[in-house]
Design brief:
Layout lengths: L1 E5 L7 H17 L3 E7 L12 E4 L3 H11 L5 H4 L4 E4 L10 E6 L3 H4 L6 H17 L2 E4 L2 H10 L7 E3 L13 H11 L6 E4 L8 H7 L5 E4 L11 H7 L2 E4 L8 H8 L4 E4 L4 H5 L4 E3 L4 H13 L1 H15 L4 H15 L2
């Protein structure tokens, strides 16, 4: 059985890139199928070592035009004969194979004001193709499944929820390594960690207001984006992860921080309570006073911090890339029957 997958999203970083790379690595460990991967990027070569990749040095806009609009060339032209094709969240190429795709969120469709009009246009076109052609849609949370059903005509029975995972290296780090990491980035002894991003979705302005009076470190803003290999050190260096995002399809930093032994304060909306369970503290992301009050409580109540850390480490164990890959393989197998 030959399975093809578009892994082009690895070029762009972020949660979708992590999902794509980690899923592929686990699928290849299992060796249940004959895999071939499609990668296209004009300016960003594939920097991670993945076998069986067919690379094309063309910009995503060309393939978006070719696969989402003109649609006269099948993915088999690039990958050869396939039984199953797993598309990315950007293009939906024609294919004779059974079709799987993953939705990480529906931000351009649910909150178009947060995205560039071109991105909104692409996702509107693609969701129509998904409605008409896809055999199985993987949603990374129940919240994302509900949102998909709200913004599309995809029936519930076609949407399977498969959670993302936590990398094995996400765990509490050695004290000496943490000290050296803090020195490298000139970080304070104690600080609140927030995750930056483009636009208003990460709620940075309210984070700054709520954290006034504390040392606040914003990844991607007050310090540069660190390498993936340094992420466990970044989490382990922090006193708390403050993640009151306005919307997340999954919220990978929540479980990554938990796995590293860091208490989490996050939003009471979209997927975040589903992911954090009883191991996080939840706030109204629009209410600065609520964020500030809960943050102060976590920082100053030692007993509460200890409970959150213990619960968080256990909670993170429920999310693994091995489980994600095994459940994805079951979808492929089901389509071959």
């Amino acid at each position: 059985m030959r399975v093809g997958m578009d892994i082009s999203q690895i070029a762009h970083g972020g949660g979708v890139s992590v999902y794509t790379e980690c899923l592929v690595r686990e699928l290849l460990k299992h060796k249940a199928f004959d895999y071939t991967f499609f990668y296209s990027s004009f300016r960003k070569p594939l920097k991670v070592r993945i076998p069986y990749v067919k690379k094309y040095m063309l910009p995503p806009s060309i393939f978006e035009l070719l696969f989402n609009k003109i649609r006269n060339v099948k993915i088999e032209k690039f990958l050869g004969s396939l039984d199953v094709f797993h598309s990315s969240d950007w293009v939906q190429p024609p294919t004779d194979a059974k079709k799987v795709t993953t939705y990480h969120d529906v931000i351009p469709l649910k909150f178009p004001e947060w995205s560039h009009p071109k991105i909104v246009e692409v996702h509107k076109k693609r969701i129509k193709l998904v409605e008409e052609e896809i055999d199985v849609v993987i949603a990374v949370s129940q919240a994302t499944k509900r949102d998909l059903m709200e913004v599309s005509k995809i029936p519930s029975e076609k949407i399977e929820v498969i959670y993302e995972g936590v990398r094995e290296d996400m765990k509490p780090q050695d004290g000496e390594k943490v000290t050296k990491f803090k020195e490298k980035y000139n970080l304070p002894e104690k600080f609140i960690l927030a995750i930056g991003g483009i636009g208003e979705r990460k709620n940075i302005q309210r984070i700054k207001e709520a954290a006034n009076g504390y040392n606040l470190v914003i990844s991607g803003e007050t310090i540069p984006w660190v390498k993936d290999s340094e992420l466990p050190l970044l989490y382990s260096s922090a006193s708390v992860l403050l993640y009151p995002s306005l919307y997340e399809g999954f919220g990978l930093p929540i479980v990554e921080a938990m796995a590293c032994g860091v208490p989490v304060v996050t939003s009471d909306s979209s997927s975040m309570p589903e992911v954090g369970g009883d191991a996080a503290v939840y706030v109204d992301p629009f209410n600065v006073e609520d964020i500030k009050e809960k943050l102060n409580e976590v920082l100053n109540d030692a007993k509460m911090r200890d409970q959150l850390i213990k619960k968080g480490v256990e909670r993170a164990k429920q999310f693994s890339w091995e489980k994600c890959a095994a459940q994805t393989e079951e979808i492929y197998k089901g389509l071959s029957k």
